Amino acid sequence: MSYASHAGRATGTHSLATAFGDMKNKVARRRSYRQTITALSQLSDHELADLGLSRSTIPSHAWQAVYGTRRQA
After folding, report:
1. I want to staple 62 with a disulfide (CB 3.0 to 4.6 A). Which of 2, 22, 36, 49 is the partner?
2. Which residues contact 59 (CB under 8 A, 6 or more apart)?
3. pLDDT in tens, the chain (73 residues)
């Protein structure tokens, strides 16, 4: 029985470590998303047009750049 309880704790620890890693990843991606929006927002309308973007599409393009998919409306 002692072995079974030890195995349960190891799994619980692994789950906690996985959850913490996932949380760190989400925070890092969110930070990257905000930084991308900030950087694009600082460009002039002419510079955005050169990139094929408009101000209204900045959040969508930033989302796609960071998360790899289009943001659902």
Report:
1. 36
2. 37, 71
3. 445 545 445 556 679 889 999 999 999 999 999 999 999 999 999 999 999 999 999 999 999 999 998 766 5
HSE-CB of 52 using CA atoms within 13 angstroms: 2
Taking each helix axis as running N to C, give the angle between helix 58-67 and helix 2-41, from 0 to 180 degrees, rounded to the nearest 10.
140
Torsion sign, CA atoms 15, 29, 59, 50: negative
- Tokens representing 68? 């790899």
pTM of the model: 0.72
Q: Count CB-CB contacts under 10 A for residue 36.
A: 18
* Rounded Cα–Cα distance for residues 8 and 23 (Å): 22
